[in-house]
């Protein structure tokens, strides 16, 4: 988990809107992988997507970072009794966001 955050748990939030200003232009490489739909991407999904779409030659710049903690209640647990501890981290992706750059 992240150690330098002010609060351990976050609200779930909403995934509406488009990535207008931040992270929607190619800055470092020649080619880029851009998101077309809103999603939450875990660090495992991020690693698999990078290994699938990147070639062995050249440099790959990762433009996303997992910074949103997600809490999950155990199965067969009654409702209530507070929010559980964070299980994993996700990245909130909006349409138009550049995920990786290659070049």
From TrEMBL:
Keywords, ordered alphabetically: Chloroplast, Plastid, Ribonucleoprotein, Ribosomal protein
Subcellular location per the Swiss-Prot or TrEMBL entry: Plastid, Chloroplast
The protein, known as: 50S ribosomal protein L16, chloroplastic
Entry's Gene Ontology BP terms: mitochondrial translation
Provenance organism: Plicosepalus acaciae
Cited CDD domains: Ribosomal_L16_L10e
Family, as annotated: Belongs to the universal ribosomal protein uL16 family.
Pfam families per the UniProt record, alphabetical: Ribosomal_L16
GO molecular function: rRNA binding; structural constituent of ribosome
Quaternary data: Part of the 50S ribosomal subunit.
Location (main, coarse): plastid
Recorded GO CC terms: chloroplast; mitochondrial large ribosomal subunit
